[in-house]
Amino acid sequence: MFTLVVPPAYGWVVLGAGIGPFITNMYLAGAVMKGRKEYNVQYPNCYATPGYHKNADEFNRIQRSHQNFCEGLDQYIVMTVLGGLKYPIACAVGSIFFFLGSILYQKGYSDTSLDVQTARFKKGGAIKYIGIFISLYSTGALAYSMLTA
User: Fold this and answer.
1) Structural domains in the chain (count)
2) How many helices (H) and strands (E) does the chain have?
3) Predicted pLDDT at 116
């Protein structure tokens, strides 16, 4: 039988998985809202239409970087909440990497002077993967300890 004990430092995981996504999403969404105004992309359009919107690529890069964050967020939170039961401090630090990396990803991806393929990592966006791998490893370690108990 395996007994699950919530570690005392788990509150840091709760902050990272509960408050971090809200703050990061608001920051990234703010850039999208600013882009909507600057590039005149009105609702309900999610993306700008090339040929119709003068600066479609510029806006779409901002929107796509926010969408990238939203697409991976649910998996990240689940892994952090679970992995944090085994390694709470590591997962809390990983959350900082993930959220800061997501912001840097947007800054790089939105820079139209850079090639689309490399832009997302040019300004530090790759550090979000440090947070992902910390949570992935921690979740795997938790599963292993539960299966071998």
Assistant:
1) 1
2) 6, 0
3) 74
